Amino acid sequence: MHKYVVGVDFGTESGRALLVEADTGKELATHVTPYEHGVLTTALPSGTKLPQDWALQHPHDYLHVLKTAVPAVLERASVVKEDVIGIGIAFTSSTVLPLASNGEPLCFLDDYKEEPHSWVKLWKHHAAQAEADEITALAQARREPFLQRYGGKISSEWLVPKVLQVLREAPHIYEATDLFIEAGDWIVSRLTGSLLRSSNLAGYKALWSKDEGYPSQAFFTALDPAMESILSTKMRGEVLPIGEKAGELTEEAAQWLGLAQGTAVAVAVIDAHAGVAAAGAVHPGQLVLAMGTSTCHMLLAEHPEPVVGVCGMVDDGIIPGYVSYETGQAAVGDLFGWYVEQAASHEVRDEAEKEGKSLHEWLSEKAAVYLPGETGLVALDWWNGNRSVLVDASLTGALIGLTLATKPEEIYRALLEATAFGTKRIIDSFTDAGIAVDELYAVGGLPERNELLMQIYADVTNREIFISHAKQTTALGAALYGAVAAGGERGGYDSIFAAAHNMVSSTRTSYKPQPDHVARYEELYLYYLELHDFFGKERPSLMHGLKEMKS
């Protein structure tokens, strides 16, 4: 008789549950639940206005996903709850939630629901750039060893800058907050009744390491005297290694989900990181691109080496036994979506509608006829700032080479190419540091939907790219960790390696580089690098100043 595991993936716009067979990884049922409140970028649900670069969410939406999606997959697959042995949680990160002393989100309380800083700060909340720069400067001045693990620069997306922003802009909210916690850890605590932190979330987003822990109390005191005791108060909680069991479902949580009380719950994992196991890329030299609204790049290595602009270099960070690196691009699918939704003309929309195609399909078909460089365009992929390797959320996008003859599909192709160039720049940072990048694996929605995009990536990087056929890769990865949390005696696995070997299909599509295109892209990439270094290193004040004027 089969045993089953559930993976729940909390994304940027929605959450999804996936039910799979524990012994084979066969996907039996999935259910996607859109967030009712979506991403709050201009105002709270009540209408209270938000400043520029804010991105908040409503924690009610996360609970709604659990209570809706998990029972739905059990019903669709006709699986009884007693046969489900584990559940894993994958979550966007860094997604920071302030909790009251009763364990509830601060924004649930009447006294604070109109206070923007009491809400969940999503990963794409970039309003803490000044605080991130301050943390970087202090760490450099003090020669803090933790800075090397993060490529020499702290990102505005991470937990500590967001907490510091609360302290600086709303000290009464900071004082009222009993605990700042990643939303993934909060969901696990709601399921198990135990407050624990994931080594994966803490390692990449909260400056923690298994050897050194968090930065010292002295560092936080130097940052701001009000943070002197933050490690024992507002950032407290035992850190558990990724791949372990966080606990078991409480009676209340079991009722929400329609599962049995005592079902094993895995330690939370960052959503993109779950794609590493789900791709079966659990060995050094295999770079995984989790491609969606943004792209997260994960790479395993035998030994730690300093790499410029990484988002984290964490021992046992994703796969036990290896050093795991993370880098990223803050706008990929979002960038293509921006062009289609905000910049494509009515004429283009009408043509696509006449042919019965989506705008993405129509533009991709038209763009595919061009050779690399034939459009005469090159773009910088910084519509949502630069995550790696410059780590500067205040940088903005650029499109160079426009003429009166430029066509919409040419611009679309230039944007696709820009994201591929951004990935190549990241790969170069690894190889320059002596870390091998032998194979590329792409997971997520974009690789399945856009053949032109993936061929461009293969040509630009000059590497074969393997595409997973899992329909819900991130949720599958969460399910793998759920199977490990259950353990071999209950029908799961005793390691993530065993789970990946048995639950991940070896059937993949691949895109191979085309030699003539590779040569042309090498030339075009030099123009990208020239723009990258000019706007990102030599004269970032140009983009910073324009953004400041806008605000």
Concise synopsis of the structure shown:
The chain is an alpha/beta fold. The chain contains 19 helices and 22 strands.
Features:
551 residues, Nucleotidyltransferase, domain 5, 2 domains, seven-stranded mixed beta sheet, 22 strands, 39% helix, carbohydrate metabolism, Ribulokinase
Topology overview:
Elements (H helix, E strand, L loop, with lengths): L3 E7 L3 E8 L5 E8 L21 E2 L1 H19 L6 E8 L4 E4 L20 E2 L7 H14 L16 H11 L1 H6 L2 E4 H10 L3 E3 H7 L11 H7 L14 E3 L4 E4 L2 H7 L6 E3 L2 E2 H8 L7 E6 L3 E7 L10 E4 L7 E7 L3 H11 L2 H9 L4 H9 L10 E3 L17 E3 L7 H25 L6 E5 L1 H5 L1 H11 L3 E4 L4 H14 L9 H8 L4 E4 L3 H24 L2 H10 L1
Helix pairs in contact: 2-3, 9-16, 11-12, 12-13, 13-15, 15-18, 16-17
In CATH terms, the superfamily of the largest domain is ATPase, nucleotide binding domain
| Main structural class | alpha/beta
Shape: globular
Instruction: Report helical residue fraction.
Output: 25-40%
Rg, rounded, reads 23 Å
Question: Would you give the CATH topology of the largest domain?
Answer: Nucleotidyltransferase, domain 5
- Main beta sheet: 7 strands, mixed
Q: Helical stretch count?
A: 19
Number of strands: 22
Give a structural overview:
There is one protein chain. The chain has 2 domains: 4-273 and 473-503, 2-Layer Sandwich (Nucleotidyltransferase, domain 5); 281-467 and 514-550, ATPase, nucleotide binding domain (Nucleotidyltransferase, domain 5, 2-Layer Sandwich), CATH 3.30.420.40. It is built from 19 helices and 22 strands. The strands form 6 sheets. Strands 1, 2, 3, 5, 11, 12 and 13 form a 7-stranded mixed β-sheet that branches. Helix 2 crosses helix 3 (159-169) and helix 13 packs across helix 15. It starts with a strand and ends with a helix. The model has no long low-confidence stretch (mean pLDDT 96).
